[in-house]
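Hi V.,

You were right to ask for the full record rather than a summary. Here it is.
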Amino acid sequence: MCLINFQLNDHPKYKLVLAANRDEFYLRPTESAHFWKDEPQLLAGRDLMQMGTWLGVTKTGRVAALTNFRDPSAPEADKISRGSIVRHFLSTDMDARLFLENLIPEDYAGFNILAGDGSQFFYYNNLEAKATEVEPGIHGLSNHFLDTPWPKVVKGSMHLERYLSDNEDVHIDDLFDILQDAEEAIDGDLPDTGIGSELERKLSPMFIKTPDYGTRSSTVLLIGHDGHVVFAERVYTSGNLQEDNRFEFDIEQ
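Predicted structure:
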C-alpha cells in the first residue's frame, strides 16, 4: 500500500472515510478482498506470498492499513513480513496502542501502520517506534512519515478535503476517480529517497503505471457514525480495471 488518504471524525455522516492505493509488482500473487476462511471476521485482500495483508477491516470495526517506508539503504533480508502486522492486529481484540507498542521494530523492514477502530486511530512506524493518536481531520500517508508533504499525499488530501466539504453523502465512484490521478509531479516537488530522480518521478503519481510495477488495487472504506461499513475495491492489471468488489455490513456490538 503506497498511498492512504483519510478523514477521521470530522464529517457529519462518516467517522472514517479512507481512500487508498496499493502499489506492487504485477507478478506478486494476490487475492482480491474477501472474508478469509481462516479468519472469518476479517475482510481484506491477501498477499499470497506471505499470507498477510496491507489493509483490512473486521466485523467488529477494527481497521488497519500499512505502507512500506522507502529507504533503499535499509536491509530487508531475514525480516518478518510487514503484512503480518495488519493480519495479527485484525485477528486480536488487543488495544491498538498496546498492540503497536509491543511490536519489535527491528523484526521488520521499514513500515508505517494505522490501526484502530474507525473512531480512534493510532499511527506507528518502526523508525521512531512510538504510537501516536491521530488527530481528527484530513491526513495522508505514503512511504514516509504520516502527513509528509510528498506531492501525491498533498494532492490526495486536498482532493479529499474539498470533496468532503462539499458532500454530506459520499459516493464511492467519486473517491475512486480521485485515486485514478496518474499525473506525475514536477521535478522540483519530488522527494529524494535515494532511488534517483527518474524513478522518483515514475512513483510520484497517486495512480502508478510502469511496465512491471504499479497500482494493483484501490480501496475505499467508509464507516458511518451509525456503525455501517462500506468496503469497496477495484483491482487492476497493468493499469486496467479487472475486478470491482463491494461489501457492506453493520459493526457487531
